[in-house]
Design goal:
- The protein has helices spanning about 15-20, 40-50, 70-95, 130-145, 170-180, 195-210, 225-240, 275-289; strands at about 1-5, 25-30, 55-60, 100-105, 145-150, 155, 180-185, 195, 215, 245-250.
- With about 290 residues, the chain is of the alpha/beta class.
- The chain has a domain at about 1-160 and about 195-220 and about 265-275: NAD(P)-binding Rossmann-like Domain (Rossmann fold), CATH 3.40.50.720.
- It has a 6-stranded parallel sheet with strand order 2-1-3-4-5-9, sandwiched between helices.
- Helix 4 links the parallel strand 4 and strand 5.
- Helix 1 packs across helix 6 (about 195-210).
- The chain binds NADP nicotinamide-adenine-dinucleotide phosphate.
- The site of NADP nicotinamide-adenine-dinucleotide phosphate (NAP) has 30 residues, from helix 3 and strand 4.
- NADP nicotinamide-adenine-dinucleotide phosphate (NAP) binds near residues 8 and 13.
Length: about 290
């Protein structure tokens, strides 16, 4: 039996990871979040990991407040949790001989490559959040050789139990549609979506494979869309007809952080996952219950 430690188990992805491994009797799963562990505290990370001695560590903890990270205080927190924390975990994983799995984002890219980004493309973030996640990628690679670094984008899934959790885009749209007749939705930032249970299962496959260590892009397939395109598909699939959606430019909703305009993550290494609208159908069935 393998001991697996999942960090960030109260987030959006963490519970799906815990489910994927807990349903397999070959794993003994430990799930930690704040306050069980603070990944920004180097000494405590080393103490806790060396006392548990897991075979595998998956880090799904992050600071995902993209706009707050533009402020000096937010950027310090982002660097601590998204940048240095993964490095401390990677170092502790190496000390106990564990495999280390970490997640990053399309926001490490500048979004000028319309055709999309390959795993080997060099990041050049245009936001402080993107900088902090890129720092995390560097720190992981500096501290351990046995790692899988998985980039994903626009995660969605069942709401987590964490009271601080931010709503995923589809949840936000569904709740706005209950209150408004028309919605203005930004018609840029072309990319794909990632369904948390699919990503969790694919992470498990990757861990159990003999694939080389390194960077992977894992998102659902399907035609890339803007937020507006995604909202249209959502309302069609959910059978919501009495809603007007108006495409607008991101200039209509100015936000502190810049987002990449085109950030399709191209996967050249793994079997592709199902198309995101298929995953969205499954999400809607579960969400409506
Ligand atoms: N969500 C997306 O659309 C998206 C897109 C691209 C990449 N990603 C990446 O995918 C991964 C999973 O994201 P997610 O959306 O599941 O994140 P999430 O829902 O924000 O969950 C992250 C969890 O980490 C916890 N955490 C924060 N600081 C911590 C610390 N210092 N020590 C230990 N735990 C801490 C959070 O607790 P609190 O909430 O109490 O702080 C939360 O429970 C992350 O690496 C993220 O950057 C996500």
């Amino acid at each position: 039996m393998k001991k697996i430690l999942i960090i960030g188990v109260m987030g959006l992805l963490g519970p799906e990871l815990a489910k994927a491994f807990r349903t397999d009797e070959n794993y003994e799963v430990t799930g930690w979040d704040m306050p069980d562990i603070d990944i920004g505290d180097e000494r405590s990370v080393m103490e806790k990991v060396t006392s548990l001695r897991p075979d595998i560590i998956i880090n799904a903890a992050a600071y995902n407040a993209v706009d707050k990270a533009e402020e000096p205080e937010g950027f310090e927190i982002a660097k601590r949790i998204n940048g240095y924390g993964p490095g401390y975990l990677a170092k502790a994983a190496k000390t106990v001989g564990a495999l280390f799995v970490h997640y990053s984002t399309d926001y490490v890219f500048d979004g000028t490559k319309k055709e999309g980004y390959y795993e080997k493309d060099k990041p050049s973030p245009i936001s402080k959040y993107g900088e902090s996640k890129y720092l995390g990628e560097i720190k992981v690679q500096e501290n351990i050789e046995r790692y899988y670094l998985i980039r994903l984008q626009k995660l969605f899934g069942m709401p987590s139990n964490n009271p601080n959790a931010k709503k995923s885009f589809f949840e936000t749209m569904l709740s706005l549609a209950k209150k408004q007749d028309t919605l203005k939705v930004v018609d840029d930032e072309l990319s794909n979506f990632t369904y948390a249970p699919d990503l969790a299962n694919k992470t498990k496959h990757l861990i159990e494979s003999d694939m080389p260590f390194g960077i992977y892009h894992i998102t659902n397939e399907g035609a890339p869309v803007t937020w507006y395109g995604a909202a249209k598909i959502l309302f069609e699939l959910a059978g919501i007809k009495d809603i007007g959606i108006i495409p607008v430019s991101s200039d209509e909703f100015p936000r502190p952080a810049r987002r990449p305009k085109y950030s399709i993550l191209i996967n050249t290494k793994l079997e592709p996952m199902r198309a995101w609208p298929e995953a969205l159908k499954e999400f809607l069935l579960e969400y409506k219950q």
